[in-house]
Amino acid sequence: MRLFLASVAILLGGSDAFSAIQSSTRPRSALFSADGSNLSGPPYSGPRIKPLLDGINSPNDMKSLDISELKQLAHEIRWDVLENVSKTGGHLSSSLGVVELTVALHYVFDMPEDDIIWDVSHQCYPHKMLTGRRSQFPTLRQQGGISGFCKRKESVYDSFGAGHSTTSISAAQGMSVAKSMLNKRKNNNIAVIGDGAITGGMAYEAMNSAGYLKNRMIVVLNDNGQVSLPTGTQSAGGVIPASQLSAYTSNLLVSKPFQDFRDFAKNFNKILPENIQDVNKRIDEYARGIVSGGTLFEELGFYYVGPLDGHDLDNMVPILEKLRDSDSNKPVLLHIKTNKGQGYPPAEAASDKMHGVGKFDLGTGVQFKSKGGQPSLTSIFANALIDQATEDRTVVGITAAMPGGTGMDIFGRRFPKRTFDVGIAEQHAVTFAAGMACEGLKPFCCIYSTFLQRGYDQVIHDVAVQNLPVRFMLDRAGLVGNDGPTHHGCYDLAYMGAIPNLTIMSPSDEIELKNMVTTCALHDDGPTVLRYPRGTGYGPKILQELFGYDLENGAIPAKGTALPIGKGRIVRVPGGINLAKYGASSQLSRLNRGRERKDRVAILSFGTRLHEALVAANEVEESDPTIGVTVADARFMKPLDIDLVRELVDENCALITIEEGSIGGFGSHVLQFLSLDGALDNGQLKFRPMVLPDVYFEAATQAEQYEEAGLNSRHIKGTVLRMMERIEIPVLQDL
């Protein structure tokens, strides 16, 4: 009867009425429980004990539970996720939104023989709790702990690793084909993909192929209306989700005419695979209350089922069982509607649904943040871009579903009509920017370094070959901390450095970041790349005392100034004398150290490792009164400041380059030049590139990752002393 009422509610009141019906028919445990849970707060609280969850070490332990127990289990999982993430931080609301779905999938299917592939997999916390990793959650996203994403090496239950989006359907299809060719007894492959991830073109490539090849697979479209992070940022498209598909799936709830019970049940039966003829009473009853839709997916060769309430175990479980038991090889798309952050009012009410959080107070949802501190480099970039856009109406900003992470939400509040969120579609973002540049706009294409990898061909083919002045702003360049290897921006210097026509720069501090935003805005002779890491500025005190800035009234300049393309700077000379104060010809620069070339070493930094290089230089000179250390900031990788490099080579017996990037980046470009310039021919120069080692860095803090990578000041100091033969280097037989 409640489903009939849902149908009537939609007919009479639209989607808002349906939402009200959904809320009233969800398990009571999701609203308020007699087990000590309180969702009428604040303060909010969960169950005091979790007897069902305590008894589950693998999905097999769930198989004997009935529906009412599955509901209680879902309630216990939701609060276990909340309690753990409140202490560690992590991706919260995505996991809260799929608790019931996760319970239903593991109850119906048999992992690891069956495969469940979580797209992006940031919503995998309930899955990990049900697959033997609950006790490890205090280590979530920490060094030596469990990952915040699915990882095949972590568990046999993680069918496919992820971190980037839109991969699940392709992976599930590949598994389906392989199982079929290998004559495996069971061939159930379930791809769970959100309405944000499905905006990526790869999802449609996979669906097109699945319908054509008729692979046995189930695609669960988890539709929560959260396409971007955060969704609802002011942009040229308004404040609606940056996806026409999201609007399409939402309209499925209200756009189809209703039929009487018998006709509707008959049509619903036809939507399911042909051999499912015995539709039980519950599914029949459910069918009477929903809308037949999904024309787009049906045209791609899928059987469309839904939309279903993704928090309603009473109906999801039997429908999944029918799909599991089908002998059909045709792909099925199961469309569920969920609420991101479900069951935790602070998450449901937040603009970003508390997508990614730090530690927070469980009773109120308020996140613990350090007081004061310096602004993030992302916000500094965004405000610098606003300055440029204020003076130049042709400046526009583009993001691929990451307005919060790239600062485009800040830019969008000031210039909504000049802000474009294209969804999770980096390839489209790059070529979209190229088209804008063709017509005279100045597009700033703002994408995480790791995500631009997905648009590499477009960077070459659509931008660089045509020498179009697209400005690529690569946030999160370098090591990013707790998200681990899928999110580090390690490779952009290597993969972008190989492309002709690109101008590539990286700031050492917040002043340089502002200067480089201005430089990019004024450079119309070709594409530019500006990479900067996850982190904050240093503040005036450090900038003056360590970097040697002479700041007027001790304040950081409000606006940036353009830099000469391809020109670096010397920041420190032997003795610690800064050129900004004394000039290159000052006799004070030598003092009593580094009198001869054999006692002088230069550190050439690219990017924000300059801070560590300066600290190391001071420590080296404090430890040895004869060594003189020069520190330079390259600023540009392309074009390389060859005059600066030659000066450093002429003046010093040893040259160290340092960068926050992989092998094949800045150091490789310097070495290429030195080789071609003959600087290495006579054996009078020692050279060492300090780069990220050729490994994947697992989740840890950024400080821990820099230590592991060997890019902190103590490692730079050690490299200098070894090159200058001030410390003994063990030989192989002594190790």
Describe the model.
The chain is of the alpha/beta class. It is built from 29 helices and 19 strands. The strands form 4 sheets. A 7-stranded mixed sheet has the order 9-8-10-11-13-12-17, with helices on both faces. Strand 5, helix 13 and strand 6 (332-337) form a beta-alpha-beta unit. Helix 5 (99-108) runs parallel beside helix 13, helix 15 packs parallel to helix 22 (510-522) and helix 25 (610-623) crosses helix 29. The termini are far apart. Residues 1-32, 250-266, 275-292 and 585-589 have low confidence and may be disordered.
Task: Please supply descriptive tags for the structure shown above.
disordered N terminus, alpha/beta, 29 helices, about 725 residues
In short:
With 735 residues, the chain is an alpha/beta fold. The chain is built from 29 helices and 19 strands.
Strand order of the largest sheet: 9-8-10-11-13-12-17
Tell me, briefly, the overall form.
Answer: globular
Number of helices: 29
Q: What gap, in angstroms, lies between the N and C termini?
A: 77 Å
Rounded average pLDDT: 85
Write the layout of secondary structure elements.
Layout: H1 2-25, H2 51-54, H3 67-88, E1 90-91, H4 93-97, H5 99-108, E2 115-118, H6 125-130, H7 168-181, E3 189-194, H8 201-213, E4 218-223, H9 244-251, H10 261-271, H11 281-287, H12 295-299, E5 303-309, H13 313-325, E6 332-337, H14 345-349, E7 356-357, H15 377-391, E8 395-399, H16 403-406, H17 408-414, E9 419-421, H18 426-438, E10 442-448, H19 449-452, H20 456-464, E11 471-475, H21 492-497, E12 503-505, H22 510-522, E13 528-531, H23 540-545, E14 569-572, H24 579-582, E15 600-606, H25 610-623, E16 628-633, E17 636-638, H26 642-651, E18 654-659, H27 666-677, E19 686-690, H28 702-709, H29 713-723
Parallel strand pairs: 2-3, 3-4, 4-6, 5-6, 8-9, 8-10, 10-11, 11-13, 12-13, 15-16, 15-18, 18-19
Antiparallel strand pairs: 1-7, 12-17, 14-16
